[in-house]
Amino acid sequence: MLSEQGEVAYAYRAAGRLQSDSGTNELPRALQRLLYPVPYPELLLPLASAQGVDPLLLAALIRQESAFEPQARSPADARGLTQVLPSTGQGIAAALGRSGWQPEDLFRPAVSIEFGAFYLAQRLAAYDNQLYPALAGYNAGDGNARAWVRDFGLADPDLFVERIPFPETHDYVQRVYANYLNYQRLYRSASP
To answer: Is 65 among the residues known to form the active site?
Structure first.
């Protein structure tokens, strides 16, 4: 299968076309797993776990950030699977003791996954493992997320998301969370 040959992005797009053409959301589990793959499992599982991040959460983030395209580049110059900005990557490289790091390294899956896991772990730690503000910080920057937590509070997490004033970040948090629920349903359920 394409997903087993490292063509995760292609398999993901093909499964999406099949879903669209089928006219239904009731798809066989194997096809659902192509829509929600665990990319580069030999990298993602140990690198996410090393940072204390649920690998399925990191997969959900990658699905939203880059649609599994290692060469993805945003208009803001975020790069790779986890869409880390070069300036953020430089700080992560220093924190991880990676000398000789270059921004182009973010296009390498191993680097992107490791740096994304590290950055997501930092965001989760900053917000006591509360997912919504951590994801908001990953997408819109920690300063924005801190201001929203200060202004809106976290007593009602759903209300926090609804009050996020940046439409892109509001949608991002909802989509990553929905992805995460689907990953949990597909990979943590008792049935194969």
So the answer is: yes
Least confident of 29-33, 68-72, 84-88: 29-33
What is the enclosing helix (H) or strand (E) of 1? none
Cα within 13 Å of Cα(32), Cβ side? 15
Which domains are seen in the chain, by residue range?
1-35 (no CATH), 39-187 (1.10.530.10)
Report, as an integer, the average pLDDT of 135-155: 97
DSSP string covering 65-113: HHTT-TT-B-TT--BTTTTB-HHHHHHHHHHTT-TT--GGGGGSHHHHH
C-beta of residue 112 within 8 angstroms of C-beta of residue 84: yes
Q: Which residues pair with 84 in a beta bridge?
A: 79
- Token pair for residue 58? 């990191």
SS3 181: helix
CA 192 to CA 182: how far, in whole Å?
14
pLDDT exceeds cutoff 50 at 190: no
Rounded Cα distance between 161 and 170, Å, is 6
| 109-130 confidence digits (pLDDT tens) | 999 999 999 999 999 999 999 9
Catalytic residue, from 65, 104, 162, 168: name it.
65
Q: Whole-prediction pTM value?
A: 0.89
Tokens describing residue 167? 């439409």
